[in-house]
Amino acid sequence: MSVASVVFHFLYWNANMDSWLFGPWTKQVFDFFTLIAFEGSRFLLESFCDLNFYCENMCFYFFRSNPQSGVEIYAVMNIIHDCSAVKQLLQFFLILLLCTGCWWKKIPYFFGGCVVLILVNIVRIYLLTTLFAHNPENFQFYHDWVARPIMYVVIFLLWIVWVLFFGSSKPKSDSTQDKR
Asked: Cα dist. 153→18, 119, 120, 130, 147 in Å?
């Protein structure tokens, strides 16, 4: 699984898969999943965050009062295509393709796993945005060492759940009688 993830990661970025993967609908696919990430994160920020912000063009603008100028924007978080989780959804798809198991189990598990990954991505962006708004100068650290690994941990956990509970069928006993 880890080799497949590393190979996929390398191919995704070095073959520019994000620009041609879905053919003429590539931009629309990324726009769709980016919008989901943005709107979900906005909902969480509006519901659970006490910071002052407004949204415009897939950006969160964080502001505070400034005695000289009235209002000061101190942090801007732009939600871009790379925030969409499309790459992680494709990685999860590849891992399921390589796993043993019945297709009739893989298809619903894939869609359920996609829902989990999308929801985790929304929470991830919410947490990253909140950390960023509190401490903008450490964005790169938060992004690379806090937020990014979350998705790989979730993909790994989805793989573990697949292997443990869905990946192989239980062996059938040779007879219904107890063997003594």
From this structure: 22, 14, 11, 21, 11
- Which 3 state secondary structure label does DSSP give 59? strand
Encode 15-35: b = buried (16+ Cβ within 10 Å), e = exposed: eebbeebeeeebeebbeebbe
Element (H, E) at 62: strand 59-66
Per-domain boundaries in the chain: 2-51+80-166
Task: Output the CA angle 156-123-141, nearest 5 degrees.
Answer: 80
Question: Half-sphere exposure (CA, 13 Å, Cβ side) for 92?
Answer: 30
Residue 23 pLDDT: 84
Asked if the model's pLDDT at residue 45 lies above 80, the reply is yes
In whole angstroms, give the CA distance from residue 124 to residue 161: 21
Name the one residue in this structure whose structure tokens are 């950006």: 59
Report the predicted TM-score, pTM, of the whole model to 2 decimal places.
0.86
The H or E element spanning position 151 is helix 148-161
User: With 80 as the cut, is the pLDDT of residue 165 above it?
Assistant: yes
DSSP secondary structure, 89-101, as one string:
HHHHHHHHHHS-S
Residues whose CB falls within 8 Å of the CB of residue 134, separated by 6 or more in sequence, listed in order: 51
